[in-house]
Write a structure and sequence with these properties.
The structure is a single chain. By secondary structure, the protein is mostly helical. The protein has one domain (about 5-50). The protein has two helices and no strands.
Length: about 55
Amino acid sequence: MTGAHRHQKNFDKIIYALSNKLKEWQRQQPLDLGPEKTDEDYLEEARKKAGLI
């Protein structure tokens, strides 16, 4: 199970980095993309898409 847990941690790191990049890009491009999501929202959405939930 440790391999799966490590994979999950790596996945979380990638999503966290991506969400930070998106926020940075959003600040530069003031687009109306609806309500701003939290990191937890991004993580949950990404996990669902990846079939982890």
